[in-house]
Amino acid sequence: MNALWHYWYPISWSREVADKPVAVKLLEQPLVLWRANGQVSAFYDLCIHRGAALSLGWIEGDQLVCGYHGWNYAGDGSCTRIPSLPPDREIPAKARAKAFRARERYGLVWVCLGEPRLEIPEFPSEFGDPSFNWEPYTSEGQWRANAARMIENLADFSHFPWVHAGILGDPNQAESPPINLTEVQGGFQYEIDTPVNRFRASSAAKQLYTVILPFMVIIQRHQPESIERHTNIYLCTPVSNHETKFYRLAGRNYRDVKPDEQLNAQHRAGQKNRRVAAPRGVAPRSRGRIASPRPGHTRYRVSPPAKATWRGMVMTWISFKSFKLFKSFKPPPASSPASRGRTEVGICRSATVERLERFELRY
After folding, report:
1. 56 and 30 in contact (C-beta within 8 Å)?
2. Contact residues for 65 (Cβ-Cβ < 8 A; gap 6+)
3. What are phi and psi of 70, to 5 degrees?
4. Are strands 229-240 and 9-13 parallel, antiparallel or unpaired?
């Protein structure tokens, strides 16, 4: 089983799972989220009867109804009603949807495909602090990149002078300072000084980075003599080996010179129009996405001293920890429809048979 299956990932805002099934994707697995009696359930998006997507159905009471033949499923995945089955016939034991663990926390729906190795990561205390304002600055999006590559980008402050000049970095102060890594539960921390965009002009602001396995980064910005605080929580969800959904929860305990509504509109517009520049040597057709490194490939070496540069320490840690998990992440092999002996009725025969046989649910 994929090693990444054993961790919790946010795959939807809780508010988006209401009175209709919601189709999502996690680690190449198509899922359907639905809510009944206030509880969220997560199924593999497949009705085992004839392979229809359960996300195309509807919710009736506390049941998820398949839109193809009306099969009813309870929150635990059991089939409770087959309309075409005579009253004297029992529902087959194999008539079940594949259910996964689902929880709600921090306003998000979290899913774990396997046996959890860790609990859902803890958020910093300011997330529940009423002096912090989160809504105007929180966002989400999707990158065409490996999740480990996105974590690398978020933790890499050496690109600030060039990509975020005047906001996070200064091209005239581009040298990366030495950093000290401190091990914390599930990951590590380090702190840097930021020479621009200070809360107070007297000294540089500081940013504390906390990287938590497998794909979470917390950035807490503060200034020693100031009460102002700004926190970013990045949650990266691997949709596939080359796609990553991210949730950015951003909050601050101070007011900007611009109204929150204006800042919110500017942020949304920037998200919509932003394009990632292609690295040097990458063909123009690759512009607009980040090329994913080969899983398991360590690109930087770490030097022996306790104090080391950003690239040596942080990138080696991420390479060995995060990229190593991706070695076992292989999308399900494609099936050959020609090898099937049974004809499926209706929709998408090749995908239907492949998904049925993968979970051994045919009967």
Report:
1. no
2. 57, 58, 59, 71, 72, 73
3. 80, 15
4. unpaired
CB 195 within 8 A of CB 203: no
Confidence (pTM): 0.72
Q: b or e along 244-283 (b: 16 or more beta carbons within 10 Å of the residue's beta carbon)?
A: bbbbbbbbbeeeeeeeeeeebeebeeeeeeeebebeeeee
Tokens of 16: 């988006």
Measured CA to CA in angstroms, residue 129 lies from 80, 133, 175, 197, 206 at distances of 44, 9, 35, 24, 20
CB atoms under 10 Å from CB of 330, counted, come to 11
Q: What domains are defined for the chain? A: 10-112 (2.102.10.10), 125-255+288-326 (3.90.380.10)
Helix (H) or strand (E) holding 101: strand 99-105
Beta-carbon count within 10 A of 90 CB: 8
For residue 151, the SS3 value is helix
d(CA 21, CA 45): 10
Which two three-digit tokens encode residue 169? 């970095």
The tokens for 300 are: 């930087």
Per-residue tokens: 4 = 């990444």
Token duo for residue 176: 């990366």
Q: pLDDT, tens digit, for every residue of 98-151? A: 999 999 999 999 999 999 999 999 999 999 999 999 888 899 999 999 999 999
* Distance from C-alpha of 315 to C-alpha of 158, rounded to nearest angstrom: 12
